[in-house]
Amino acid sequence: MTELIGYAASALVAFSLLTSNVLRLRVLNLAGAAVFVVYAALTRAWPVLAVNLFVACVDLWHIVSLKSKKDVFKLMEVGTGDPLLRNFLAYHARGIWQFFPDFDLAALKAPRCVFILRNLLPVGLFVYTEEAPDIRVHLDYVAEDYRDLKSARFLFNRAQNAGAFAGFGSFTAASGTPRHAAYLRRVGFVEEREGFFRKRIAG
Predict the structure, then answer these.
(1) Residue where a domain stops, chosen among 29, 51, 68
(2) For the chain, what is the domain count?
(3) What range defines the domain where residue 55 resides?
């Protein structure tokens, strides 16, 4: 059992190094360090306990700092021919395909394209069409390093964005993958029928 605890701690630390999201890395690393502290206490490996207790404290400090950091979010609409839009879609093509395998900007009629800016960095792209009384979401993609749901909560849940979608009652979205469906549920969408989700626009 003691060896299994040691293996579990090693696996958590190793897995933390595979993620590019800084907050997730810190959380996983903290969990690994905490399990290592338990392992070291059981085996009386005091140097291992000391260093992992220190690592856990450092991780905890970074997590608190990241959680308390105040980011500035803005929405920036661009035209379909904008160079930034083309470059963003090209650079993130593989990630977009994983979540939105059927997305085709050229096939959409009168699409609206909005960048989600986080501290003035274009970290996400929101593409929709106006299908009164709803906003139909075709793409809601955020770069991997920024997938902590802050961008999504700003877009969907902040009352100050209601003006951007004035006159519309709901966001609707079709889920192309199980991961996307799970994401929609986490940000407040409700599945009305299989693969089709709706969320009331915040007012």
Answers:
(1) 68
(2) 2
(3) 2-68
Q: Do 61 and 102 belong together in one domain? A: no
Q: Mind spelling out the 3-state secondary structure of the chain?
A: CHHHHHHHHHHHHHHHCCCCCHHHHHHHHHHHHHHHHHHHHHHCCHHHHHHHHHHHHHHHHHHHHHHHCCCCEEEEEECCCCHHHHHHHHHCHHHHHHHCCCCCHHHCCCCEEEEEEECCEEEEEEEEEEECCEEEEEEEEECHHHCCCHHHHHHHHCHHHHHHHCCCCEEEEECCCHHHHHHHHHCCCEEEECCEEEEECCC
User: Both 22 and 94 in a single domain?
Assistant: no
Q: Are residues 45 and 84 in the same domain?
A: no
- Asked if 122 and 156 sit in the same domain, the reply is yes
pLDDT in tens, the chain (203 residues): 788 888 888 888 888 888 877 888 899 999 999 999 999 999 999 999 999 999 999 999 999 988 888 889 999 999 999 999 999 999 999 999 999 999 999 999 999 999 999 999 999 999 999 998 999 999 999 998 888 888 998 998 865 666 778 889 999 999 978 889 999 999 999 999 999 999 998 66
